[in-house]
Design goal:
Layout (H helix, E strand, L loop, with lengths): L15 H8 L5 E5 H13 L1 H4 L1 E8 L5 E8 L6
Amino acid sequence: MEFKIEKNIPIPVRGKWQELADNMQDGDSVLLCYNKAMSLLRALNKRSIITGFDGTSKKVSGNPPKFRVWKRRVKKNGI
């Protein structure tokens, strides 16, 4: 059986949260309800080693409460 090995083929984006995470820049934020905020945080943190970015969030007052999610550069060695 023969296989063709290919290089430099990008891995496709897996969903809307990963696409949003990829389009955000360092310091950008989005205001979302809890479930959506957690989905975006998972997308940001899932690939933090590869991208060099992760996510953080803060609860914002409201009824129902909203959460602001930021994309931030991962600090290496506390720097």
